Amino acid sequence: MIDHISVAVRDIKGAEAFYTALLAPLGLNKLREWPGAAVGYGKTYPEFWINCRPGMAPMAADNGTHICLRASSTEAVDTFHAAALSGGGASDGAPGLRPEYNNRYYAAFICDADGNRIEAVTFL
Fold it and tell me: Could you tell me which CATH number the domain at 5-55+64-123 has?
């Protein structure tokens, strides 16, 4: 149903380093770049984009934006979360089971430097 998504970032170079590390455990690699403007990640084509918006005001913590990406394993979810923290992101929910959603739902939630909320999920 959804072909691709994008998030706005103020610092494209910083966000590129952050998202390259964050998305690798999910099997998404840098596939396309418009220098200084956008970077696209995916498996066979760009599915996830970061777009430079240097004049963007910081997003409120309760902005409501939430993107969930599928992970292949619990290890991938754990690595996604660790990469976010080591890259300057914030935890919005440590890796673990979420029985309130589904007894097989294993996920982690992070926030990037611009307030974008990203989740990685796998099903046990």
Answer: 3.10.180.10
